[in-house]
Structures are given as structure tokens and as C-alpha cells.
Amino acid sequence: MAERNPAGVPVLNGIDLQVKTGEVIVILGPSGCGKSTLLRCLNGLEVAHSGSLNFAGRELLDKGTDWRKVRQQIGMVFQSYHLFPHMNVLDNLLLGPLKVQKRDRREARDQAEALLARVGLSDKRDAFPRQLSGGQQQRIAIVRPLCMNPHVMLFDEVTAALDPEMVKEVLEVIQGLARDGMTLLIVTHEMAFARAVADRIVFMDGGRILEQNPPGIFFTNPQTARAQQFLEKFSYVAALPQTTQTKELELL
Amino acid sequence: MNFDYAFILSTLPAFLNAVGVTLQVGFIAIGTSLLVALINATILVFRTPYLQRLVGLYVELARNTPLLIQLFFVYFALPALGIKVSGFAAAIITMTFLGGAYLTEVLRAGIDAVPLAQLESGRSIGLSHGQLLRYVILPQAGILGLPSLFANFIFLLKETTVVSAVAVPEILYTTKSYIALYYKTY
């Protein structure tokens, strides 16, 4: 798969990535390496200009692809939450299920409230986004696509705009999804989180995937010099105790 | 100063009627202008090819020519092309032509002020173009553009005076008629 920026310079090049159902992929790499672009290509916010993108047996780069259908199955969470500021929490959550999926209001509402309870925000269902903290908004923003019952969730640096205390509450939600066996693609700079939650680390630089390995191998014995150099900037990660992977979160 | 109260009283029904006509022209024009502006804004938001150019051209033309000339064109020039319209219809058509352009700009500015991220956010949950416009963009653009929207409504209501030129009996026309008839202003 490949994608060019407006100047014609390839942003992604020769991306070859296969994700199995239930797999948790964490994409790492320096800023500007194309991590976010890769995620955005997967739900059609950017359209790759060449190559092949296969999802559940269908080729998505075909002209006839109905991205609206695909997006119901591939949820996305953004760095800056992007909740709809003119709607309260419940309306934010129900817009997709009611208007896109045309579901029964009561049933959709029950699901939304159950999910809100799961992220610990039941009491905020009538609040407006501006009344919530960043961490709360981001948890709502995670629940919003979840209300559409997606098969895959994409997380684009969802904790980058949060202060450290709020990072934890958001990561715990994502971790819960990982434990439930949902397929996740996560772009993050939280190394400890990546290590704890990932089944596979994908390391990118300059629009290419340089390395794909389980976190145990990637963090202790990176195969490329670039990855090694990248990890040295996060040297504390190497100092983490080597435990078996538990999908439990150990924040520093 | 001597007011001729009997005279003033005798003109009252005509003036009440004139106020009605003014409000009628004004509010119909505001409504139709808003409709035109909504259609145009939709075209602009989704960058519809060709139509987008056409909207740009329309906005420039409507905003950069005087209302009176537009009115005369509709009332006097269109009949030459075989399209005959009444004064009232000419008034509505012209005011819609002008108001539609102004309100298009107001909505466009409001829509431009809605962050692009909101669009992406809406698209990412599978909203269609129409749903995106209705549930995400317009409510936010409307709130942002509300002050200038109302300023333009008032502007349109005031501009109805111009349609007196094609014998629509609004307030100015009625006033001038009485002055001409009786040579009295009070």
C-alpha cells in the first residue's frame, strides 16, 4: 500500500501488514513517520493511491467501496477526542447507532449506557463535552465508535493530549478492550503501555515498516539499527522487569 | 405644527396594509434566501465540482450589483425575454437573489469556522454527507454565524424599501403615493 502527500512525495511506501482477528498491534515510530497516515488509510479518511487493502475478504481500494459501511466496522479514536461540542454525551454516543445504523433507540441507549458504565462515566451522560476533563472526553470518544459494534478499533495517539493522571484512565479502557479480544491498532508513544498490551509491535520510519516483532523481542533485541536508536530515547523501557505478558498495565 | 389627525387616521388602513406587505416581502425573502444559501453552502462544503464555481460566480454577481438594477432587470428586462412577472414576484425573486448570496457567505464563513476535525470525526462513525451537514456542521456553523445571520435578516428587511420602485405597495411606496396625491406629509 502507498500514499502520497500533496507535493507528490510518498508518505507511505511498501506497507505490508497483516492483522489477524483479535490481534493487538501497536505502531511505534518517530513523528512524521506515517503512523497516523497508515491508520487513516484503514478507514478511508485518507485514500491510498496504490496497492491493496483487504478487510474481511473485501478489497477496500476498489472504487465501489462504501466507506460508510466500513467505518461502522472500523472505529477510530483521535488524539484530540473530537466529540461533537453541541451535543451532550448520550447524543454523541447515539448519533451513529440511530442515524447511521438506524437502530432502535431504546436498545441503542441501553448499550450506550452499559458502555458508559464500563468506562466509569454513567453520571456524565447528560453533560456536554466542554464540562468534562480531557481524560473523560477521551473515554467518551472511545465509547462512541464502540456503540457501533465495530470489529476493529484504531487509536491515533489517544493519550498524547492528556496529562499523566488522565493517561492512565484512558489506557485502562483500551487495555480492557484488548483483554476482551477486540482487534486493535494503536499508535502511541507510551512505551510501557505498548509493551504491556501489544501482541506485535510494528516499527515505522520514513513511511516504511522497518520491523514487526512481538514486544518481547522488539524491546529487548530490536532487529534494526533505527529501532535500536529509537528505543535508546526511551531507555527506561529496557530497565523494566521482564515479566510474562499479562496485558496488565505497569505505568512508570 | 398642525397635525391633520383626520387625514392621518384616514391613511392608517393603507399604512397597516403597507406594513403587512413589507413584512411579507421581507420574511418570504428571508426564508427563500436561507433556502438558496443552504443549497449553496452544501455545494461549497463538499466542493462539488463545477457547481462550486457557479456558486462563486453567483455570489460575486449578486453582491456586486445594486439591488435596484437587479430589480429592474427582473421587472423590465425579463418580460422582453417572454417572462412576465408581477411586481410582488419580481420583489421576491430579486430579494432572494441578493439575500441568497449574502446568506451563502454567512453560512460559508460559519462552516469554515467549524474545525475540519469535526468533519473527520463525523465521517469516522459512518455519517453520510447529508447527515454530516445536518447533525454536525450546520448546528455548529449556525451558532457561530448567528450574529451575522440576523444582521443580514435585518438588512434584507430594510432593503424591501427598494421594491417600491416596481409598484409593490410597501411602506415607502404608500407614503410616496399619499404625498403625491394630497401634497401633504402630515
TrEMBL record, chain A:
CDD domains: ABC_HisP_GlnQ
SMART domains given in the database record: AAA (SM00382)
TM spans (from-to): none
Gene Ontology molecular functions: ABC-type amino acid transporter activity; ATP binding; ATP hydrolysis activity
Residue ranges constituting the ABC transporter domain according to the UniProt record: 1-231
Gene Ontology, cellular component aspect: plasma membrane
InterPro entries: AAA+_ATPase (IPR003593), ABC_ATPase_HisP-typ (IPR030679), ABC_transporter-like_ATP-bd (IPR003439), MetN_ABC_transporter-like (IPR050086), P-loop_NTPase (IPR027417)
Keywords, sorted A to Z: ATP-binding, Cell inner membrane, Cell membrane, Membrane, Nucleotide-binding, Transport
Subcellular location: Cell inner membrane
Domain of life according to the entry: Bacteria
Membrane topology: Peripheral membrane protein
Keyword RNA-binding: no
Gene3D superfamilies for the chain: P-loop containing nucleotide triphosphate hydrolases
Entry similarity comment: Belongs to the ABC transporter superfamily.
Alphabetical list of PANTHER family matching this protein: AMINO ACID IMPORT ATP-BINDING PROTEIN (PTHR43166), PHOSPHONATES IMPORT ATP-BINDING PROTEIN PHNC (PTHR43166:SF4)
Name of this protein: Amino acid ABC transporter ATP-binding protein
Organism: Pseudomonas arsenicoxydans
Organism placement in taxonomy: Bacteria, Pseudomonadati, Pseudomonadota, Gammaproteobacteria, Pseudomonadales
